[in-house]
Amino acid sequence: MNEDRKRTERLFRNTLRSLAPPAKMTVSEWADRYRILSSVSSAEAGPWNTNRAPYQRGPFDAITDPNIETIVLKWASQLGKTEGLLNAIGFHTDHEPAPMMLLQPTLELAQAFSKDRLAPMYKKSPKLREVVGSGKSRDGGNTLLHKTFAGGHITMAGANSPASLASRPIRIVFCDEVDRYPASAGKEGDPVALVTARMETFWNRKRVLVSTPTIKGSSRIENFYEDSTQEEWCVPCPSCDELQPFSWKQIKFEYDDIKMKTTSVAHSCRYCGVLHSEQEWKAGMEYKGKWIARKQHADTRGFHLNQLASTFSSWPRIVQKFKTAEKLVKKGDIELMKVWVNTVLAEEWEEKGEKIDESVLMNRREKYHADVPEGVKILTAAVDTQDNRFEVEIMGWGANHESWRIEYHKIYGDLKQPQVWKDLDEYLQRVWKDEHGREFRVAVSCMDSGGHFTNEVYKFCKDRFTRRLFAIKGESPGDGKYLPLVAGTSTSNRYNATVVRLGVDEGKAKVMALLQQKADQPGYCHFPLTTREKDRGYNEEYFDGLTAEELRTRYKMGIPYTVWVKIKARNEPLDLAVYNRAAIEILNPNLDVELPPLNIDEDKPATVLTRQRRRGTSSSV
Question: Which residue positions does the secretion signal occupy (predicted)?
């Protein structure tokens, strides 16, 4: 009975308070006055003191600025950003009640936040305990992921859970670790966009986006910070008083590799060059430090802060982490350095991919004295199937897998009509000659069966099986799983056509490796120069397509793997280079001996694949 009476009195007081306009107060002022840190969630229990981390004052007080709608924190770890979020939640629970949502990367993290961080704050701070109650389910319908109070509520949600983002109006959204969010909440779309849409009905809406960054170019927090005031926390030089941000480039240290210990560390002034210790730079930071904007923005303030400014981590400790990561880099493991750049410097990691300059390849073009240059022993063909055309490349192969591009040809037409297929058939049967009049025909062809004309490709290839025209199906298993270029065959389709499975990742790796060979090295690639008499199709568009992807390193469960990333719009030339490479491996001739021109006998079925499987060999150049 007493519990019911207390609950009724508390509800009455909270209702009266919600009807009265709140006195003007900032988030930091509220926290300094009412926030009590719990020993359960904090290393330093007791009353909150913003001066302990003075760089928090500006960003979180911006939440109470009526002119600011979005606050972006691109921060390193160990800067107290979670505690700052809790202060803002406490402020809008007690002083300025509002419907809120805290969005974590996963629903499990949202549950952990509620249990391990939010509940201890509500319980330990008397002012909040008075408003919210004990937090038990019988208090106003409170649950683990939803807390109610007079004038508002807070919901904890997971970016990976569409159900937890169920539509309810939200005035204030706290998005924590946005770079760890999935690309889409189930099939619903971008989680940040989804929660932002819930704020539209509020004129005084607020959105707080917080994260350490990840990969340059794909980091959410990087994109949000770029569209903001781009502020940096600056402190005065102890010698010349010039304000400046802490920068790793200005850190000078000495490290004992034997004892694995930092012996000295200092930060130089970017203006006068004088070195000062961490203690000297941070002395009086709570009074002298200030946020300085690099851009103007009407309604978005952005704050970048690295760990050098942290009052919870020391410079020797930061140097120690760097040296540990550096040792692993020398062994070929960049993962720890990547983490250090993201979580200590709060900078994006720029991945170095295997990239070839298209202009270098284009400048390598040479004049051929005939359709087929000297040195070519075998011709192969590759066909890419598009909705309105075929793109075909003829390649010649010689000793040590040295290759010559012969022609890049496009055949336009409606693939639903027979004429364009007839044109393709005639082109693949063309006779090519070298300067001595020696005749060459295409020995083996690979044709893409993807797209909207799969069955048509199967039938086309089945009818020309004796000419070694094979349908191919590219596969990319991902996550570092290896699949050889010629991975096997299948005939389980409508026409029982032989379909060759290709490991395209392995194929691209082989193509790119050979493109980087020098003229005196095995596997060198030749390209023909366009002349007045003949345009072979090797123009700027072709070389853009040939270099349209680059190899990047990814990690899964701490294990590095590589993935090909498309960086340009069209990549058909690269695909055709892979198909031609597969074609020569399917044929598997001995290119290191002189071979007569190969004449295809139309009456004999091709047995190349059978021979290759029996031999158990394939080229590995």
Answer: none
The structure's pTM equals: 0.60
- 557 compared with 357, residue with greater pLDDT: 357
Q: Are residues 228 and 371 both part of a single domain?
A: no
Query: CB–CB of 59/81 below 8 Å?
Result: no
In angstroms, the CA 531 to CA 539 distance is 11
Domain contains 244: no
Same domain, 295 and 188: yes
CA quadruple 157, 162, 167, 172: dihedral sign: positive
Tell me the two tokens of residue 167: 């539509």
Among 313, 346, 381, residue at a domain's last position: 313
Q: Produce one character per residue of 249-286: b if its CB has 16 or more CB atoms within 10 Å, e if not.
A: ebbebebeeeeeebeebbbbbeeeeebbebeebbeebb
Q: Cα–Cα distance between 199 and 98 in angstroms, integer?
A: 12
pLDDT per residue as tens digits for the range 310-338: 988 899 999 999 999 888 776 556 778 88
Residue 38: strand, helix, or coil: coil
d(CA 472, CA 462): 12
Query: What's the Cα-to-Cα distance from 454 to each of 346, 416, 458, 494, 580, rounded to whole Å?
Result: 48, 12, 6, 10, 19
Chain center to CA of 526: 34
Residues making up the chain, counted from first to last? 621
Mean local confidence (pLDDT), 135-164: 80
586 touches 608 (CB < 8 A): yes
The distance of Cα 43 from the centroid of its chain, to the nearest Å, equals 34
Name the 3-class secondary structure at 563.
Answer: strand
Domain-embedded: residue 333: no
**Domain assignment of residue 442, yes or no:** yes
Answer yes or no: is pLDDT of 19 > 80.
Answer: no
**302 and 413 share one domain:** no
Residue span of the structural domain in which 54 resides: 2-236+289-313
Judge if 505 and 396 occupy the same domain. Answer: yes
**Do 41 and 125 belong to one domain?**
yes
CA distance 338 to 291: 27
pLDDT of residue 302: 97
Q: How many CA atoms lie within 13 A of 501 on its CB side?
A: 11
Backbone angle region of 260, left / alpha / beta, with phi > 0 → left and psi within -120 to 50 → alpha: left
Identify which of 193, 113, 178, 188 has the alpha carbon closest to the alpha carbon of residue 146. 113
Nearest to 247 by CA among 269, 279, 223: 269
Question: Would 572 be classed as within a structural domain?
Answer: yes
Q: In this structure, are 225 and 147 located in the same domain?
A: yes
* Number of domains making up the chain: 2
